[in-house]
Design brief:
Helix content: 10-25%
CATH architecture: Roll
CATH topology: 2,3-Dihydroxybiphenyl 1,2-Dioxygenase, domain 1
Largest sheet: 9 strands, mixed
CATH class: Alpha Beta
Structural class: alpha+beta
Number of domains: 1
Distance between the termini: 12 Å
Number of strands: 9
Order of helices and strands: EHEEEEHEHEEE
Length: 134
Protein backbone atom coordinates (compact mmCIF):
# COMPACT_ATOMS: atom_id res chain seq x y z
CA UNK A 1 0.00 0.00 0.00
CA UNK A 2 2.69 2.55 0.90
CA UNK A 3 4.93 3.82 -1.83
CA UNK A 4 8.21 5.60 -1.65
CA UNK A 5 9.48 7.61 1.30
CA UNK A 6 8.49 11.20 0.54
CA UNK A 7 10.32 12.90 3.41
CA UNK A 8 11.58 12.75 6.97
CA UNK A 9 10.54 15.73 9.10
CA UNK A 10 12.84 17.25 11.69
CA UNK A 11 11.68 19.88 14.19
CA UNK A 12 14.28 22.60 14.63
CA UNK A 13 14.52 25.42 17.20
CA UNK A 14 16.13 27.82 14.68
CA UNK A 15 14.95 27.43 11.09
CA UNK A 16 17.51 29.83 9.59
CA UNK A 17 20.41 28.07 11.34
CA UNK A 18 19.16 24.61 10.33
CA UNK A 19 18.69 25.77 6.74
CA UNK A 20 22.25 27.09 6.72
CA UNK A 21 23.61 23.75 8.00
CA UNK A 22 21.96 21.82 5.18
CA UNK A 23 22.69 24.44 2.50
CA UNK A 24 26.14 25.74 3.47
CA UNK A 25 27.71 22.87 5.41
CA UNK A 26 26.20 19.87 3.63
CA UNK A 27 25.81 21.53 0.22
CA UNK A 28 22.14 20.64 -0.24
CA UNK A 29 19.56 22.57 -2.20
CA UNK A 30 16.91 23.99 0.13
CA UNK A 31 13.58 25.67 -0.52
CA UNK A 32 12.47 29.04 0.76
CA UNK A 33 10.57 28.94 4.06
CA UNK A 34 6.85 28.37 3.66
CA UNK A 35 4.28 29.20 6.34
CA UNK A 36 1.50 26.64 6.68
CA UNK A 37 -1.03 28.26 9.04
CA UNK A 38 -3.45 25.30 8.82
CA UNK A 39 -0.71 23.08 10.25
CA UNK A 40 0.85 25.68 12.58
CA UNK A 41 4.33 25.34 11.10
CA UNK A 42 6.89 27.00 8.90
CA UNK A 43 8.67 24.50 6.71
CA UNK A 44 11.77 24.29 4.55
CA UNK A 45 12.43 21.32 2.27
CA UNK A 46 15.93 19.98 1.74
CA UNK A 47 16.06 18.33 -1.68
CA UNK A 48 18.01 15.07 -1.90
CA UNK A 49 18.36 12.79 -4.93
CA UNK A 50 16.16 10.08 -3.41
CA UNK A 51 13.88 11.93 -0.95
CA UNK A 52 13.50 15.15 1.05
CA UNK A 53 14.16 16.34 4.58
CA UNK A 54 11.48 18.66 5.94
CA UNK A 55 12.68 21.17 8.52
CA UNK A 56 9.79 22.23 10.76
CA UNK A 57 9.54 25.24 13.03
CA UNK A 58 6.49 26.33 15.08
CA UNK A 59 4.34 29.03 13.52
CA UNK A 60 3.08 30.73 16.67
CA UNK A 61 2.80 29.63 20.29
CA UNK A 62 -0.22 27.38 19.61
CA UNK A 63 1.66 25.30 17.03
CA UNK A 64 1.28 21.55 17.59
CA UNK A 65 5.07 21.20 17.41
CA UNK A 66 5.70 23.87 20.07
CA UNK A 67 5.21 21.17 22.73
CA UNK A 68 7.66 18.95 20.87
CA UNK A 69 10.31 21.67 21.14
CA UNK A 70 9.56 22.19 24.82
CA UNK A 71 10.23 18.50 25.43
CA UNK A 72 13.15 18.42 22.96
CA UNK A 73 14.80 21.88 23.01
CA UNK A 74 17.46 20.86 20.49
CA UNK A 75 14.78 19.55 18.10
CA UNK A 76 14.64 16.08 16.61
CA UNK A 77 12.94 13.70 14.22
CA UNK A 78 9.19 14.35 14.12
CA UNK A 79 7.63 12.10 11.47
CA UNK A 80 8.12 10.11 8.30
CA UNK A 81 5.96 10.63 5.23
CA UNK A 82 5.07 7.83 2.82
CA UNK A 83 3.37 8.23 -0.52
CA UNK A 84 0.08 6.51 -1.34
CA UNK A 85 -1.83 6.41 -4.61
CA UNK A 86 -5.28 6.81 -3.03
CA UNK A 87 -5.37 8.41 0.41
CA UNK A 88 -9.03 7.60 1.10
CA UNK A 89 -8.56 3.92 0.23
CA UNK A 90 -5.41 3.86 2.38
CA UNK A 91 -7.26 5.51 5.27
CA UNK A 92 -10.15 3.08 5.06
CA UNK A 93 -7.85 0.06 4.89
CA UNK A 94 -5.80 1.27 7.86
CA UNK A 95 -8.87 2.03 9.97
CA UNK A 96 -10.29 -1.41 9.19
CA UNK A 97 -6.98 -2.88 10.39
CA UNK A 98 -7.30 -0.93 13.67
CA UNK A 99 -4.93 1.97 12.99
CA UNK A 100 -5.87 5.36 14.37
CA UNK A 101 -6.03 8.34 12.02
CA UNK A 102 -5.36 11.62 13.84
CA UNK A 103 -7.71 14.60 13.70
CA UNK A 104 -11.13 14.15 12.14
CA UNK A 105 -9.86 11.49 9.73
CA UNK A 106 -10.34 13.68 6.68
CA UNK A 107 -7.32 14.56 4.52
CA UNK A 108 -5.99 18.11 4.67
CA UNK A 109 -3.84 19.90 2.16
CA UNK A 110 -0.16 19.48 3.00
CA UNK A 111 2.98 21.44 2.17
CA UNK A 112 3.10 20.07 -1.39
CA UNK A 113 -0.52 21.03 -2.09
CA UNK A 114 -1.60 17.37 -1.90
CA UNK A 115 -3.93 15.56 0.54
CA UNK A 116 -2.27 14.28 3.73
CA UNK A 117 -3.26 12.33 6.84
CA UNK A 118 -1.37 11.53 10.02
CA UNK A 119 -1.42 8.17 11.80
CA UNK A 120 -1.04 7.65 15.55
CA UNK A 121 2.56 6.88 16.54
CA UNK A 122 1.49 4.19 19.02
CA UNK A 123 0.19 2.14 16.09
CA UNK A 124 3.46 2.44 14.10
CA UNK A 125 6.38 1.50 16.33
CA UNK A 126 6.40 4.86 18.14
CA UNK A 127 6.71 6.88 14.92
CA UNK A 128 4.27 9.53 13.72
CA UNK A 129 3.42 8.62 10.12
CA UNK A 130 2.17 11.01 7.47
CA UNK A 131 0.55 9.71 4.30
CA UNK A 132 0.57 11.90 1.20
CA UNK A 133 -1.43 11.17 -1.93
CA UNK A 134 0.65 11.39 -5.10
Amino acid sequence: MIGRLNHVAIVVPDLAAATAVYRDTLGARVSAPQDLPDHGVTTVFVELPNTKIELLHPLGASSPIAKFLQANPAGGMHHVCYEVADILAARDRLKKAGARVLGDGEPRTGAHGKPVLFLHPKDFCGTLVELEQV
